[in-house]
Amino acid sequence: MKERTLAIIKPDGVSRNLVGEVIRRIEGEGIRISAAKMIRMDKDQAKGFYQVHEGKPFFESVTDFMSSGPCLVMVLEGDDVIGRYRKLIGATDYKRADEGTIRRDFATDIEKNIVHGSDSVENAKFEIKYFFSELEIF
Ligand code: ATP
Ligand code: MG
């Protein structure tokens, strides 16, 4: 089924010059990038983005991290792209991520894990709308 997902190259991925490498892997999978831009969230915007995690022990820290520098946000499109992109990025904890995944290859920490990917159709809709207007998606 044709889906959209929100992908983010997090501040650690941008500052470590991994933008090209992540995009190469996405496009290499046959996934189409239908929107992309660089943004920097402030603390409140990061809290709004990760509002599903409000109250969890890592909430303060992850929202500090996500607002610590610019991110590249993208909309990806394709058949079953939510699951396919999650597979490409690997498990949240890079130590448990499969070999050859982006997080396994580049993450340094459970929090600083290079990339974000929506985990459901419903969350993808919310997250895409958080950053993009329909006019910016091609
Ligand atoms: P993302 O939503 O960023 O794609 P995910 O869906 O794999 O990641 P979530 O459970 O949604 O994982 O957590 C959101 C983010 O919060 C993680 O990617 C990571 O940066 C951070 N995080 C998650 N769990 C922890 C933890 N136990 N300790 C520190 N940071 C964490
Ligand atoms: Mg998540």
Account of the 3D structure:
By secondary structure, this protein is of the alpha+beta class. The chain has a single domain (2-133), classed as Nucleoside diphosphate kinase-like domain (Alpha-Beta Plaits), CATH 3.30.70. It is built from seven helices and four strands. The protein has helices at 11-15, 19-28, 43-49, 59-66, 81-89, 102-106, 121-131; strands at residues 2-9, 32-39, 71-79, 115-117. A four-stranded antiparallel sheet has the order 2-3-1-4, sandwiched between helices. α3 (43-49) packs across α4. The two termini are 18 Å apart. The mean pLDDT is 98. Bound molecules: adenosine-5'-triphosphate and magnesium ion. Residues 53, 58, 62, 92, 110-111, 113, 116-117, 119 line the site of adenosine-5'-triphosphate (ATP). The site of adenosine-5'-triphosphate has 10 residues, from β4.
User: Shape, please?
Assistant: globular
Widest β-sheet, arrangement of strands: 2-3-1-4
What number of structural domains do the residues give?
1
Give me the CATH fold name: Alpha-Beta Plaits
Mean pLDDT: 98
Low-confidence segments, given as residue ranges, are none
Which distinct ligands sit in these coordinates? Answer: adenosine-5'-triphosphate, magnesium ion
User: What is the helix fraction of residues, given as a range?
Assistant: 25-40%
Number of strands: 4
Level-1 CATH class name: Alpha Beta
